[in-house]
Amino acid sequence: MESAEDWLVESLRLYQDFHAFDLSGATRVLEWIGDKGDVPCLALKNQSSSWNSGAQPRGTQPLFWELEGLLVTCSNFMPRQHYISLMKKDLDLFHPSVQGCIPMAEEFVFALGDLVECLDPAVVQNLSSTLSQLILLLFPGILVAGYESLKKNEILHLILPLRLSVKENQGLFPERDFKVRHGGFSDRSVFDLKYVPDTRLLVTSGLPGCYLQVWQVAEDSDVIKAVSTIDVREKEGRLWPRMAIFSSAAPGVLHGARLSSLKVVDLESQKTTYSSGVSDDELLSSLQVLDADTFAFCCTSGRLGLVDTRQKWTPSENLRPGSGSAGGRWCAEAGGRGPGPSIASLGSDGQLCLLDPRDLCQPVSLVQCPVSMPSPDPELLRVTWAPGLDNCLAISGFDGTVQVYDVTSWGGMGRQVEPLFTHKGHIFLDGNGMDTAPLVTTHTWHPCKPRTLLSAASDASLHVWDWVDLHAAH
Questions:
Q1: Which among 277, 273, 265 is positioned nearest to 241, based on CA atoms?
Q2: Dihedral (C-alpha) 385, 388, 391, 396: value to the nearest 10 degrees?
Q3: Residue 278, helix vs strand vs coil
Q4: SS3 303
Q5: Chain centroid offset of residue 88 CA
Q6: pLDDT tens track for 287-341
Q7: Distance between CA atoms of 120 and 99, rounded to whole angstroms?
Q8: Local confidence band at 181 (pLDDT 50, 70, 90 cut-offs)
């Protein structure tokens, strides 16, 4: 493997962009919050008119509203300082005395307090009531949390650097650091954290594992505070519940450490709305909500199942990943774009199994990834589908790397495959040499930027990297 100096030179060819950030402690959590990486938005509403553009956009669409012919979007949020971005076509709305001072770029940014001074007085009079009625959406960003035992662990809401908060490259931005927007402390190790969409609530799981903890992101301060707990069945040893969130008008938390303890609990009333009702004590490694009524589970043995909560426990499932894959520990994720299998199951020995959800009993392919050794901590195994690319996934949890694969041409059983890209930054930026290289603890894809990933490691490093597809370049 090349030296750190060689890698740094080579990285200029391998990455479109790269950000490194030091956390206060190592994390196993990279959870998107708010509108999942879209440009943060200030919604402007006039007292005498309704929204000109109709219903509020959802999901990953650009967030903007048009008011009195002025297109106003928010380019960035900093703590206690709001910025508004205006397109060059709106230049005539500014007072003539400042028009000549505005940079001739496609987009320019003003602090909110300066906006009133720069706009033409007639426009200011039109918007004065608007500016006093700013509706602030929850700051998009990521959540991280510490997992060390015998200490208080931070839960942080981080705002991404500006260039990572826009969908297209819009020039150079001076700000390259993450910003802490909210924070709190947990008395427990946080092994998992889920954001409840369209709320200010978070749910955490960890050790000791006898309960889940519900947190609230404050509206009028920078505090994340614990508001309630949810009791769970497991009281033993080192077990902690896996989690997923059913987001609806009445959000529910799906949780369980074993198949026998799987249940959905209404977040507000804490009443159980669904339970497996079985005595099967297989250990769970991951849970994933697929839609309003169905979820997927993966057991540590590799057993996979799809469950419809409108029926009694009758999962569609497989009992093992595939021939020749006994032993080890497994995790899985459903997703994927384009035709082909959409469930990926990853083993602690580097085997990767692709399945079609319509027939879980017959794996589409079972391949061997070139991992340096079996995972030293199978709890950290992670496989994720790229939300913005067809047939691409990433794996981590074996060493200090994250490997990206294109599964388009995979088929058959037992073949060796090679990654499309390998992120080695956590190894070479560690500075302590290969013998003490950190272990990647988790990774996730940026929801809007197709080739951008975030990864964290046991040395408390957080990387955001936009990899170059060298195969496509040829």
A1: 265
A2: -30
A3: coil
A4: coil
A5: 33
A6: 999 999 999 999 999 999 999 999 999 898 887 665 445 568 999 999 877 666 6
A7: 10
A8: confident
